[in-house]
């Protein structure tokens, strides 16, 4: 039985907002007992039950906990739940910060912002991803079994990556790598998730005028479409695997990011430049793919079927429509970031949601 002072663990609570009335911003989070929620009482005799998590114990990972290990062997991070069983926390990811990384670590998870991403060489299936969190920056080597498979990832995107391995090379430089085929390898681009905008409890609304002064790279803003015209819009081919634009070279189509030939496996889409505004500021931004379709509310095929004068008229009708957007600073990282005229931010709208 629990009593005042007992420590509880809560798995999969239902998260809802608490607003005093319909006109107020939701300010408080409310955790409710939902259909998938489980509550655990953590044993009070902590000095007996506490286990020390070392990196080698978190080698096998998964996104969910398991109450009954398949091999029926409890790991060293198993806590008794009640008389009938125990919870094995070895399946929970172990999140580290960049400053925590050192040699001989496996199964490490990082959450941060992408500051650069590129292919190591034109041939091969290895890429470099640079991730920054509040404690530092780390360059990660991504090794794929075939082609790039993580969808679109760009500078300024918030990502979660797990299954990282850290080692020291011959000259004692830390090397961090991630292999697609390693069990427990997981990559999530949070900037592109619909939940980022749908779940109001996950974000605070920023004003556009706050953007240049903030250390955060991703912001959620409520904006109206201030300006868009036919010159703002370009139709291009996008590579399905990575979402980047495909270049037309003399010997065929080549992805500008993966550098692979992609005669098949590409889809037409919009490249859109637009001005968004709120009461504080106007910002010139860009977006591609599904986000551009959300703004334009028309598919590339449907748009191309319109006569030219109707295209212009159609775009004009979209002005002043309201959207909630996730907007990311895609400028390259500058050490000791200083506010000056040369450091022009480039803003990408990674998600947009039309407000009725
Ligand atoms: Zn590609």
Describe the structure in your own words.
- The chain has 356 residues and is mostly beta strands.
- The chain folds into three domains: 7-87, no CATH class; 94-192, OB fold (Dihydrolipoamide Acetyltransferase, E2P), CATH 2.40.50.140; 196-354, Beta Barrel (OB fold (Dihydrolipoamide Acetyltransferase, E2P)).
- It has helices at 46-49, 195-198, 289-296, 300-305, 308-317; strands at residues 7-11, 14-18, 28-32, 38-42, 78-82, 85-88, 94-95, 105-119, 126-133, 136-143, 158-168, 174-179, 186-189, 205-206, 218-227, 233-239, 246-249, 252-255, 266-277, 282-288, 322-329, 347-354.
- A hairpin with a 2-residue loop joins strand 5 (78-82) and strand 6.
- It is globular, with a radius of gyration of 24 Å.
- Zinc ion (ZN) binds at residues 239, 241-242, 244, 255, 257-258.
């Amino acid at each position: 039985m629990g009593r005042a002072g007992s420590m509880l663990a809560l798995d999969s609570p239902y998260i809802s907002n608490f607003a005093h009335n319909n006109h107020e911003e939701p300010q408080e989070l409310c955790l409710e007992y939902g259909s998938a929620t489980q509550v655990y009482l953590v044993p009070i005799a902590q000095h007996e039950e506490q286990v020390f998590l070392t990196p080698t114990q978190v080698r096998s990972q998964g996104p969910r906990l398991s109450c009954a290990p398949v091999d029926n062997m409890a790991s060293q991070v198993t806590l008794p739940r009640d008389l009938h069983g125990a919870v094995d926390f070895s399946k929970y990811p172990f999140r580290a910060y960049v400053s925590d990384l050192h040699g001989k670590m496996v199964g490490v998870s990082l959450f941060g912002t992408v500051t650069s991403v590129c292919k190591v060489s034109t041939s091969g299936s290895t890429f470099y991803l640079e991730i920054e969190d509040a404690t530092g920056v780390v360059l990660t080597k991504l090794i794929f079994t075939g082609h790039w498979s993580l969808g679109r990832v760009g500078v300024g995107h918030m990502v979660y990556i797990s299954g990282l391995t850290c080692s020291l090379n011959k000259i004692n430089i830390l090397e961090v790598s991630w292999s697609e085929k390693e069990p427990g390898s997981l990559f999530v681009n949070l900037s592109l998730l619909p939940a980022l905008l749908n779940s109001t409890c996950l974000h605070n609304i920023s004003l556009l005028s706050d953007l240049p002064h903030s250390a955060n790279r991703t912001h959620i803003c409520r904006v109206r479409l201030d300006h868009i015209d036919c010159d703002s819009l370009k139709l291009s081919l996008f590579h399905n695997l990575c979402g980047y634009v495909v270049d037309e070279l003399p010997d065929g189509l080549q992805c500008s990011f993966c550098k692979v030939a992609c005669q098949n496996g590409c889809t037409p889409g919009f490249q859109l430049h637009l001005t968004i505004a709120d009461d504080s500021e106007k910002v010139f931004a860009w977006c591609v793919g599904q986000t551009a379709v959300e703004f334009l509310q028309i598919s590339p095929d449907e748009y191309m079927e319109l006569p030219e004068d109707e295209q212009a008229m159609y775009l004009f009708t979209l002005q002043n429509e309201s959207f909630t957007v996730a907007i990311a600073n895609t400028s390259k990282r500058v050490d000791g970031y200083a506010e000056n005229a040369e450091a022009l931010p480039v803003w990408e709208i990674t998600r947009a949601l039309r407000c009725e």
